[in-house]
Design goal:
Chain A is mainly α and 375 residues long. Helices cover 67% and strands 5% of the residues of chain A. In chain A, helix 3 packs across helix 12 and helix 7 packs antiparallel against helix 10. Chain B is an alpha/beta fold. Chain B is built from 18 helices and 22 strands. Classes of the chains: A mainly alpha (375), B alpha/beta (529), C mainly alpha (322).
Chain lengths: 375, 529, 322
């Protein structure tokens, strides 16, 4: 219990009292606070856009129109949301255990590399059936991502190495790693990209079915979305309804209590980091196979892993809420490409995260404005 | 509330507090409390845990700000905005948890927060000054020692030194004896008496009647935030009267304990060595055994290896050497899960940091040791209906006061949280239970409840190991008591069902300060100082 | 490849890490973990470059860079010290925020041309000392020399002065400091700000001295994070921070130099003939940071000393019943 003086301000006979919350707030309250934080963030972002010489209102209108305006852009929004969704799921499960995996970006990149290796190494013949290609690519992507999660997990569990810094360093290493392959081994005619994948290594897209459903013509939404939604459902089940999930939640809330309950913490650190890496790696696979169709640095290392952190936090680490929030952020990033100055989406993401964290205060404390008492 | 009117012929009051009100969310900690302190007296402030003693004194020490009421020091009204203001007015508080920075030296701790030296810390020169002040009041400490190297008693002396160095005239001591052995307590009392003789006024916060009558000149009593006695001379009041003022009814000092019927040895600890978190030896060849159907106590001054003992038994800490047998099975190479699966229950010392997960629900907290088996767990998935059903049953059976079992346990009071933990541990039908400080920080009613549950375990035939720093609790519950000192057993004392006599307490006291039982028997009680 | 040149450049490049690491040491010693170093460094680098281009005065650039990063650090201070939010998450948010703002406000700066830089000079006499002279005292930026002064001063300040004692107390046991009238909240705000100032200086050191210009996020390329890692390696000691920073600086220079010559140790240089092998060299600083962390963590475990005891924990006054 905190004393109420921390933030006491006296003014004109009233004073603001800050008290810790001793009850469970109604269910709508956290939602209201999050939405409030989002609105505040857009407002603050607007001020900064103005400062940089832009027009905030136009920018926001543009974002709305360019991402939800018609079925075509909505499809593009969903395409952007898919990698964010998987990256955010990856972050959410690690954060649930208070493992600060900032390396979803690197794990995502490694997943893309692992999936590409199946095509480019080549592991499978280019005429292999599509189901085989996609299955093996998904497994390879998850495996590469899990490996990239295993390293910091192992270092954390066995050697007490700070996972924030190690995962971050592995991000940079992952970028250099795929650059090595793209610039050298798999370079297509000296360009900084690999050759395009054969069609049977592509995830099916809505446009592929345009013959039977004409409305799907030109829509690039791909099966990665299904993978992501399915992963979210599974993850929800794991976290809230399984023994393992219970252990994860217990460790995350109080590691001492988990130890006391006989739970193996070092093992779980490694397993959860690997699960987290596998989810991000699956995101990378979905992106190369569903969207980019070749290994190339810029569209793969585009910061989805970092956006995932914010999405996971905004969704309060709930896998189902992550689906929804990912779409919002997909929209922000999609539309943001055309906004000047070009850093705007990134900046708004930063401001949103800052406002969100600050708004958590309102969930833990009660702010009361009271008439000053006897004194 | 009693009121006394100061008589004008007496010396001016060192401190006068009138109508102090202090609220915390959900609690009225001080409800118009008066208090007065004369110069050169030792004034006991008596009350149960949670009666508002520490709150009142934290107000006087400038740590909290009262919502209403006046404080006067030497007759002048004062307003404290921070502890610094209080210290300037000559009021220093020695908290229950020492306010010393472990990684710094004694001198650095003494100089912390002072204006002199202003910038450059030339420590050697101040080491001498610190030693000098210490000698004046009979407080011997090495000024260059780091705090973490000192014993608890020495740390307490550093705290006193810190306040005396600042020229404090009023010293508030918050339960200073809780961490000391009986013989060390006598040493502290001598220091306090000599300080009072040199004109210092001392407020002595306690909930132990015996100490109050031994040291205090006058006594004030708080009950549930209200003063029930104000400055009563300690000589003219009986312990029974004080007890009634404290709890509001006559206290029954004995529990209904049936004669024991111990069975087979359930737990055996053989010559165990273990290190503490700093890597220093905490247990050095400790042995004990516990039989079915008995409560075995472990007495000792805080920090003599009790926590580590509980941890090695529950496999949360590795033994360096030795053996621990639970029903004949060796635990020393096992993990905590093994103990849980073999009928061991554990009431940890720290309810909040070890015993519970604060942001998880009551349900999640009660299944902590049952989530691996049916009916809660089926094929790796959790049956939340079964879990909720269990939680509701335990809520009824153990009278856990909570609106709904989905409430996070951080919102529960200390007593309620302890009931959640007891419910979880006892409902597993343990054959062996370790309880460490199970009543710390609870109010009288809650303490009684915990004691009854422990005795019920004994009657049900479980073996109970009770590790506590409350000697009274140990004597009233245990069949046998081991005394631990610096990680070694000083011996084992049998407790009869009758009220323990003074010589038994004195013997245990001697053992707590490092005299093995054989030595006491050889030399006879009373041969030590 | 010349050892003296590598070390000389190492000291120059390492000065960036040195300022950032010492800044973070101050913040962490007060008990506040600020993971936003990378973001603040970007703000610093962008502001320094932008202000210098507009005014032609690099000193004003340095000043504004420090101020901007210091201001940004106060967002973290408010969120963690006053609102008691998790320091890890808030620090991450600060990184995003700093990167985002610097990208928006730094738009177009990358093509802005050259600026007048901070002066480089040699120190007479000292530069004559064999080996040490050319490395430390020859044609270094004024900021490098400032680093030589700052490090021992910071060490002395933390360990042997009254404010340093207060700083350590607030980071080790804030309740004790508070009970003696030391204002924990104010000190933490102050040292987070001081940390921000120094990290801003680190940013300015990049864009005005070490590798002049603004190249969006590539300007810092993760050096802020390396600094956070170095704090652990340095065990919160500025002198060790200096050692680590210069070693990292030298490593960065070595990586550049190793790709230059056609012949390396008597063999055909693979990095020259297959430039894409250079990507493995690029991994080195990051891999080394992880290795340094392993060493730092092991050493801390062995010596049983480590982070300030209250690092990462909000201070809430009047904790009851615990």
């Amino acid at each position: 219990m905190a004393e109420s003086t921390a933030l006491k301000k006296k003014s004109a006979g009233y004073r603001i009292r800050i008290e810790p919350r001793l009850d469970v707030p109604p269910a709508w309250y956290p939602l209201l606070v999050s939405v409030g934080a989002l609105v505040l963030a857009l407002f603050l972002g607007g001020i900064l856009i103005m400062f940089a010489g832009g027009d905030p209102l136009k920018s926001y209108q543009h974002i709305a129109r360019a991402s939800f305006g018609n079925i075509g852009v909505l499809s593009d929004t969903i395409v952007k949301a898919t990698p964010i969704l998987l990256a955010a799921l990856a972050c959410s499960v690690a954060f649930r255990m208070k493992l600060w995996n900032i390396g979803a970006e690197g794990q995502f990149i490694m997943g893309a590399w692992g999936a590409s290796a199946i095509v480019l190494a080549p592991v499978l013949d280019k005429d292999s059936p599509r189901w085989l290609f996609l299955t093996v690519m998904a497994l390879a992507g998850m495996g590469a991502g899990a490996l990239w999660g295993f390293i910091p997990g192992f270092l954390k569990a066995k050697l007490n190495v700070n996972e924030i810094i190690s995962t971050l360093m592995l991000n940079y290493i992952a970028v250099a790693w795929i650059n090595f392959w793209i610039f050298g081994v798999w370079s297509e005619g000296g360009f900084q990209m690999s050759p395009k994948f054969p069609l049977n290594a592509w995830l099916p897209r809505l446009a592929d079915y345009a013959k039977s459903v004409p409305a799907f013509r030109g829509l690039t939404t791909h099966a990665g979305l299904l993978i992501g939604v399915f992963a979210a459902l599974i993850l929800w089940l794991i976290v809230y309804r399984s023994r393992w999930g219970y252990e994860i939640r217990l460790i995350g809330d109080n590691a001492n209590a988990a130890r006391y309950a006989g739970i193996n913490i070092t093992g779980n650190i490694i397993y959860v980091m690997m699960l987290s890496g596998a989810l991000a790696g699956l995101g990378g696979m979905s992106e190369v196979s569903g969207m980019v169709h070749r290994l190339q640095t810029a569209p793969i290392a585009a910061g989805y892993g970092f956006t995932g952190i914010i999405v996971a936090w905004l969704a309060k680490l709930n896998p189902l809420a992550i689906i929804l929030v990912s779409v919002l952020f997909g929209a922000l990033i999609l539309a943001g490409r055309e906004i000047q100055p070009s850093g705007v989406p990134k900046m708004i993401q930063g401001i949103i995260l800052v406002c969100l964290i600050a708004s958590d205060f309102l969930l833990r404390y009660r702010v009361r404005i009271a008439r000053a008492e006897e004194d | 509330m009693t009121q006394t009117i100061p008589i004008s012929s007496e010396p001016p009051l060192a401190v006068e507090m009138r109508g102090i009100v202090k609220k915390f969310p959900g609690v009225l900690a001080n409800d118009h409390v008066d208090f007065e302190l004369r110069s050169g007296e030792i004034h006991a402030l008596l009350g149960e845990n949670g009666a508002g003693k520490s709150t009142l004194m934290n107000v006087l020490a400038g740590l909290y700000r009262q919502e209403a009421g006046v404080i006067k020091v030497k007759g002048k009204p004062v307003e404290f905005h921070s502890p610094r203001d209080a210290i300037k007015a000559g009021i220093g508080m020695i908290h229950q948890h020492f306010m010393l920075v472990p990684s710094q030296t004694v001198t650095e701790n003494v100089l912390l927060g002072l204006d002199n030296p202003r910038f450059f810390m030339r420590l050697p020169q101040y080491d001498a000054k610190v030693t000098e002040v210490g000698e004046r009041f009979g407080l011997k400490v090495d000024p260059r020692a780091k705090i973490w190297q000192l014993s608890v008693g020495e740390q307490q002396r550093v705290e006193l030194l810190k306040m005396l160095y600042r020229g404090a005239d009023v010293l508030i001591m918050d339960e200073p004896t809780a961490v000391l052995a009986p013989q060390e307590i006598e040493g502290l009392f001598e220091i306090l008496r000599s300080m009072a003789a040199q004109g210092k006024s001392i407020i002595f916060i306690s909930h132990k009647l015996q100490e109050v009558t031994a040291i205090a000149d006058r006594v004030s009593v708080l009950r549930r935030g209200v003063a029930t006695a104000l400055g009563v001379p300690a000589k003219g009041v009986t312990r029974q009267e004080l007890a009634r003022l404290m709890v509001g009814r006559d206290v029954v000092f004995s529990l209904d304990k049936k004669p024991g019927n111990p069975g087979d040895v359930v737990l055996e600890v053989k010559d165990v060595y273990a290190d503490n978190d700093k890597g220093l030896p905490a247990l050095r060849g400790f042995s004990l055994n516990v039989r079915a159907g008995e409560i075995v106590g472990v007495a000792g001054v805080a920090g003599n290896g009790q926590s580590e003992l509980a941890q090695v038994i529950t496999c949360l800490r590795k033994c360096r050497k030795g053996q621990i047998l639970l029903n004949g099975k060796d635990l020393s190479a096992q993990n905590a899960l093994f103990g849980i699966q073999h009928g061991m229950a554990y009431i940890p010392e720290d309810r909040n940091r070890v015993g519970s997960a604060p942001n998880l629900s009551v349900t999640d907290n009660v299944i902590m040791k049952k989530y691996r088996q049916p009916p809660i767990s089926r094929a790796g998935l959790l049956d939340m209906n079964a879990a909720t059903k269990l939680a509701n049953e335990l809520k009824e059976a153990y009278e856990i006061i909570v609106p709904h079992v989905s409430t996070p346990v951080r919102l529960l009071s200390g007593g309620n949280l302890q009931r959640v933990i007891l419910a979880r541990e006892i409902s597993g039908l343990p054959s062996f239970m370790v309880a460490v400080q199970p009543t710390r920080g609870l109010d009288v009613g809650a303490i009684e409840g915990v004691h009854r549950l422990l005795l019920a375990q004994r009657e049900a035939g479980a073996a109970v190991l009770l590790i506590s720093e409350e000697l009274e609790e140990l004597l009233s519950l245990s069949d046998r008591v081991y005394v631990i000192y610096e990680g070694k057993s000083m011996g084992e004392v049998k407790i009869g069902s009758a009220e323990p006599d003074e010589s038994l307490i004195e013997t245990i006291g001697l053992m707590m300060t490092g005299s093995p039982l054989e030595k006491i028997h050889k030399e006879g009680v009373g041969a030590h100082g | 490849m010349d050892l003296i040149i590598i070390l000389q450049a190492g000291v120059a490049t390492g000065t960036v890490l040195l300022f950032a690491t010492i800044g973070e040491i101050f913040a962490e010693r007060s008990g506040v973990l600020n993971l936003g170093v990378e973001g603040m460094m970007l703000i610093g680098a962008m502001t320094a470059f932008s202000v210098t281009i507009k005014t032609g005065n690099p000193w004003l650039g340095v000043f504004m860079a420090m101020l901007a990063a210091g201001l940004l650090s106060q967002a973290h201070a408010f969120i963690t010290i006053t609102l008691h939010a998790d320091q890890v998450v808030s620090g991450l948010a600060l990184t995003f925020l700093g990167a985002g703002i610097s990208l928006v406000l730094g738009e177009g700066l990358s093509k802005a041309g050259t600026v007048s830089l901070l002066p480089n000079f040699s120190i007479p006499l000292l530069s004559q000392i064999p080996f040490i002279g050319p490395i430390l005292f020859t044609k270094q930026s004024i900021l490098v020399y400032f680093g030589y002064l700052l490090t021992p001063l910071a060490w002395y300040y933390i360990n042997h002065t009254r404010p340093g004692l207060n700083l350590r107390s607030v980071g080790e046991y804030p309740a004790a400091a508070d009970s003696l009238g030391i204002n924990v909240f104010r000190l933490r705000y102050f040292y987070v700000f001081l940390g921000g100032l120094l990290v801003g200086l680190a940013g300015a050191t990049i864009s005005l001295a070490v590798s002049p210009g603004w190249f969006s996020e590539l300007t810092t390329a993760g050096q802020g994070w390396i600094a956070v890692g170095l704090v652990i390696f340095a065990q919160w000691d500025p002198l060790r921070a200096m050692l680590g920073s210069y070693a990292f600086g030298a490593l960065r220079r070595l990586i550049l130099d190793i790709q230059g010559p056609t012949v390396l140790f008597g063999f055909d240089n693979p990095f020259y003939y297959n430039p894409y092998w250079g990507f493995f060299l690029q991994m080195l600083p990051y891999a080394f940071t992880v290795i340094v962390l392993v060493i730092g963590s092991r050493e801390a475990m062995r010596k049983r000393l480590g982070a300030p005891a209250a690092l990462g924990e909000p201070y809430i006054r009047g904790e009851r019943g615990k």
